[in-house]
Write a structure and sequence with these properties.
alpha/beta, TIM Barrel, 6-stranded parallel β-sheet, 3-stranded parallel β-sheet
Length: about 325
């Protein structure tokens, strides 16, 4: 069974890489940048290049869907780069192609706030895609950079689905009908996503879960089963949003960046601004087997479990990462 995680933002280390191997994780979409400029993002890629040099028996950079197969064949984990905000392209559409050449395969059009491209889910007014947003989506479609709307507002997300000529992804979120976090998505969005051929990755980040850290595996898998009825089994996967070993200080960078002098904890609270504890059934990359078992317990057959645990992401990678045929 192919095992792919649609989103992680861990404090990367040899320990984490070895846990990926212990858990049989074939591929991970790894956030490499949030609010960083282009040059700062390149420095983050340099850091990843050093890790690839240090741990070639554990990880390597993934660029195509075939690298998922190579990872399985060689007992390693393919790392696919992603950005959670378009800061890395600054105001230069030409950097879309440059970053794709450097290995970026996913880019969110916004992270909670209004960007040059679209509105985030924390804005009071969602204006949809901007003029630059429409142009950037077209360029992302052309080069094979996936449009990710995980932190975007509803109107902007629906506009991206409508404007994009290739299926988009919501790599880490859950249905708002299950848990009404601002980051979770309405049934309207999920239905449109599925009908357009897009992908949803279910998040295990506690702020996205009903009951938070106390959410049970059964509740999580029952939510997946209900969403499968809405979207179809072929349009869903896992996107844990695992932030393993990150210090609480990183939350300030994720939420605040450089856009405010105040403290904005977004999905957290002022009383508890740090990372919440993960549910006891998923602590790190060694615990994907619990999810697979939980999916079987709620009625998914062996083939459907394999689709959700990675097969669907593998097919999406195949269709998404190359240049658009002309």
């Amino acid at each position: 069974m192919t095992l792919i995680d649609g989103l992680q933002y861990a404090n990367w280390s040899e320990k984490v890489f070895r846990q990926m191997r212990a858990g049989g994780v074939d591929a991970v979409h790894a956030t490499i940048t949030y609010h960083e400029t282009f040059r700062e993002t390149v420095l983050n890629i340099e850091a990843w290049n050093r890790w690839f040099e240090q741990f070639p028996d554990l990880i390597f950079q993934g660029r195509t869907a075939a690298d998922v197969d190579l990872a399985r064949e060689t007992g390693r984990t393919a790392i696919f780069f992603g950005s959670q905000n378009p800061s890395c392209i600054e105001d230069d559409i030409g950097l879309v192609e440059v970053l794709h050449t450097l290995g970026l395969r996913f880019m969110q059009l916004t992270y909670n706030n209004q960007s040059l491209l679209a509105s985030g889910c924390y804005e009071a007014e969602d204006t949809g895609l901007t003029r630059m947003g429409k142009a950037v989506v077209a360029e992302m479609n052309r080069v094979g950079l996936v449009v990710d709307m995980s932190h975007s507002g509803e109107r902007s997300t629906l506009a991206a689905i409508d404007h994009s000529t290739r299926p988009i992804a919501i790599t880490h979120a859950n249905p708002a009908s299950w848990h009404p976090a601002l980051r979770n998505k309405s049934d309207t969005v999920l239905r449109a996503l599925a009908e357009s051929g897009g992908m949803l990755g279910f998040s295990i980040y506690p702020h996205h879960l009903k009951g938070g850290s106390a959410c049970t595996l059964a509740e999580f898998c029952q939510m997946i089963a209900r969403t499968a009825e809405l979207m179809g089994v072929g349009r869903i996967g896992i996107g844990t949003d695992l932030c393993q070993d990150q210090p609480d200080s990183v939350v300030a960078w994720m939420r605040n960046g450089r856009w405010t002098k105040d403290t904005d904890f977004g999905e957290g609270s002022a009383a508890a601004p740090g990372f919440p504890p993960m549910p006891d059934w998923f602590q790190d990359n060694r615990h994907f087997g619990a999810i697979a078992a939980g999916l079987a317990d709620v009625g998914f057959d062996t083939g459907e479990v394999a689709q959700i645990m990675g097969g669907n992401w593998r097919a999406f990678f195949e269709a998404s990462f190359g240049r658009k045929a002309t």
